[in-house]
Amino acid sequence: MRYQITGKQIDIGEALQTHVKTELGEVIGKYAGRPTDAMVVFSKSAHENVCEATVHLSTGLTAQAKGKAVEIYAAFDACAEKMDKQLRRYKRRLKDHHQDRAQPVELSGAASYILAADDESLEEPDSLAPVIVAEMSTKIPSLSVGEAVMQMELASAPVLVFKNEKSGGVNVVYRRDDGNVGWIDPATGT
Q1: pLDDT digits 0-9 by tens, 32-62
Q2: Rounded Cα distance, 37 and 27, in Å
């Protein structure tokens, strides 16, 4: 597994890097068979240290956790505890649904755009074309609906676009204001 351990405007020593690799390796090893890479970022927020960890698994799932504490090691330990809890819950879900994925998730290429916010909403725009602030490529995973919901929850994202393994069409799952999950399947909806 590849580790990328960095600090935002703080120095990360060898001892902390070794601690992160050992502890995170144990947490991930308990629940995930084939992790591909982990990115851990340490930063300061006022008087607290913040640790953010993102782990990519070969099944296509991405787990994210964040911990805060006054001490940097305690911040990492809080983050690792949240990651452990998250991975334990999702492994239990996968076991309960008997969804063993033999092959890694298939990914398709797509473009992702960030549009500028309309600062002058009271004035009439010169053109109806939005201003593109950033353009980047992204991957669209091929998942079942249940896996897509798990991926969205693991990433703490409000929405996930995915290719439905069953129908082959592009689908969307999203978190509704009432707390439930919505699913848009244009292939069956007319």
Answers
A1: 666 678 899 999 988 999 999 988 877 767 7
A2: 14
